Amino acid sequence: MNVFTKQTKTTFLALGFGLLGSGGALASSTFNSSAALTFVIDGIENQTNPGSLTGLEILGTFDQIDAPGYAGGDYSLVGIVGDGQVKANNPAIAQAGGFSKTFTVSGIVSNGSIDSHHLGWYGLTFQNTGIDVYTISAHFDYELHAGIGGENGFSSVTVDYFNEDGLLLSGYDSADAAFIAPNVLKSGTSGLFNFSLAAGAFEGLYADVVIDAHLQASPVPLPAAVWSFLAGLLGILKMKKRAADASGLDQKLEAKFTAGAKGWSQ
After folding, report:
1. Nearest to 175 by CA among 142, 153, 150, 200
2. Domain boundaries, the chain
3. Pairwise CA distance, residues 76 & 115, whole Å
4. Looking at the predicted structure, is the pLDDT value of residue 80 above 60?
């Protein structure tokens, strides 16, 4: 009796092809990137009236730029296809003196893609509304982190820094993450910025930070164990077919032999 029926074969084949079809599933891709900046005032001296800070106004600021600050200016944009989500909740800061601020953007997609571009403006400004002359030293330290999860994605965090006219201080740095380096951390400093502030003058230390990311949901590969199972399944089907063919041939030969024996006996 052949218990390996046509229905049984169909069931095993359906199971095998179902496993193959599962290879079309998608795995989530993620990113979580940030820039942490700390602005420090290293020294202030009143050259006209030592010890006095009369007329000197210092302001530390941060803004996430979600609309152009000027005609044709850069700003934050997000493009999503499918079920992607991006989080960029970075409240503005405006306070006297030095400050610290971490600018963070993250996202996830399970089916589709994400293109994310976010811009943050940092600044430490000095305005002399009085008649005295000041000499000032300031700097900022930064820590850039670019992080992704999944095979199909990248993220980049850049910092571009400069003074008011871009002539006395400028610099650039970046951290870039991809599949071969999914978490990249870069730290550094602007270096000491020394300047003189005359009566009525204005100066600033600025940093533009950009956090970019592209994500694509990743196909899920079949585990090696599944491929082994499928290979074994095909082997079983072939063995059963051969056994069934051999059994049928034996039955045919037996029938022919029986018929021949009857003919001889007559």
Report:
1. 142
2. 6-24+222-265, 26-219
3. 11
4. yes
